[in-house]
Amino acid sequence: MISSAVTLQLPALQVALPLISAPLGLLLRRHRLVWALAVVVCWMSLAISWLLLQQVLAEGTISYAMGGWAAPWGIEYRIDAVNAYVALIVTGIASVVVPYARRSVEQEIDEGRITYFYVLLLLCFTGLLGMTVTGDAFNLFVFLEISSLSTYALISLGRDRRALTAAFQYLIMGTIGGTFVLIGVGFLYVVTGTLNMADLADRLPEVTQLRTLHTAFAFLVVGIGLKLAMFPLHLWLPNAYAYAPNAATIFVAATSTKVAVYALLRYIGSVFGPVISYEDVPFGEIAIILAVIGLLSCSFVAIFQSNVKRMLAYSSVAQIGYILMGIGLASKTGLMASLLHLFNHALMKAGLFMAVGCMFYRIGSVRLDDLRGIGHSMPWTFAAFVLGGLSLIGVPLTVGFVSKWYLVLAYLEQDLWPLAFVILFGSLLSVIYVWRVVEVAWFESPSPRAAEAREAPLAMLVPTWILLLANVFFGVQTELTVGVAGLAAQILTEGLR
Amino acid sequence: MLHHTVLRVVSKLLIPVIMLFALYVQFHGDYSPGGGFQAGVIFAAAIILYALLFGLDNTLDVLPSGVLQGTAALGVLLYAGVGITTVLMGGNFLDYNRLAADGPTGQHLGIFLVELGVGITVSSVMLLLYYAFAGRGSRP
Q: How far apart are CA A133 and CA A83, in angstroms?
């Protein structure tokens, strides 16, 4: 009885729990307590999203009427396989990153500001989960702003003074993106008179001839494109990732662009529907062209970076290219590959940034020069980095292989051989930039800083290895990810009805 | 400042009226245009006027930024607390009908508390923003 009542409230609790914990954290003040609160909240959120996913798989779409107002008048939280899966990614990553964050944050952020760090992280977490579970177009914009505003502040907490300019740059670009999303939603409201996504999906096919609808589509794609760092709208990303505190970089890199990709998928797949997105508007072609340019150019740029965090940031833009290539194909296998890569890229990039964070913790730098010989003084940390690198390249038995396999398969299905080669060539480029770090760290004589370094503390090493072993686990045991991603791709190709 | 008699007298006349107007906008929001956000901004404007004329130090004595951070958090908690209360009373999140025996009374009570939460948070955050720009925030 009680358990069924709780089950009914899970969609609201998924967002309300971190939302309440953020102001509570501000009142607690003592940063150790706030950290403990954040850990508990993240774990509880993970449990909630797991229960929601099980419920969706067993019973189908869940609809929750916020405030008791029935959709389409009230705000509806609508959870199907797609967003249950994305919520699981976000909460899963947060559950590993927050325990890791304690040592890293205590070293990198001034004592008086650590509480703010966790409060902002919880707010960002709230925003991302809200974007994920909501079924209301305007509500999605509100949560997008909550997550963005807290991310700007998180980035600006970095010790490096360049963090401030990076945060400001992101603030400007992100605000333009947010405004574009709002204008797009406004146009949709003008032509249909509704903001509920399912209701929009019902009404939009009646007005496909309207220029306003196509304008709305363009505004939404560009706006969300800015948030997910679609080439050439990615310019804010490398600096933001490079100069933010390490714990913030890990969390943002692994979740925020993924949720933005989810928002894009939701709009083109469910709200506009495949007919408008791929036939009336040439979204597929545009996405593939931009993705290929982004994939190749950012991989090249990554090869020439001397700062490992910046290198990984450029590699993130390149990986977003793979995700967009799958989306642009408009086939079920393509969407499934993209959804798989959302999960897999979150795992590998979080793992890599965590390993880099461990090195930064000991030597206070992530420049390649200072990392010389680090593989000898921090063997476990660097082994983790290598494992993450292998996953990034797409070596079999890692998650990177699984998503690239399906992506290549999707392209071969459509007889697009040249583009399948682009994917493989991209992997080759990632071999180069990962190898540069490996060569420096294992085969060169130690730099003065690396020689003094000891292995990272267990409080950081254990979460890092948990994520990297997850890279291997989900690379071998693909039942959960491939199953759910396949179901989610099915939903997106059919539209909401 | 003490020499600007006109400014001092006029502001002393204005500040209470502005605050009263903020409370009017706050509590009349469910019948007429207004609500927590507008009221919060107007209330903060009254205190910012005081700070402009009598200096930031005097203002910080009355409303230290530590207290404002607390009230900002409390406002959000009040809002979310109403949501949790409705859940505990067997409804959906923020389903005000559950707050009282009959629906309309519950709706009144719910929107009143939620808007109060919004007002408290907005005025606190407006003041914190002003403090930050005026250069005497609680920066460590």
A: 6
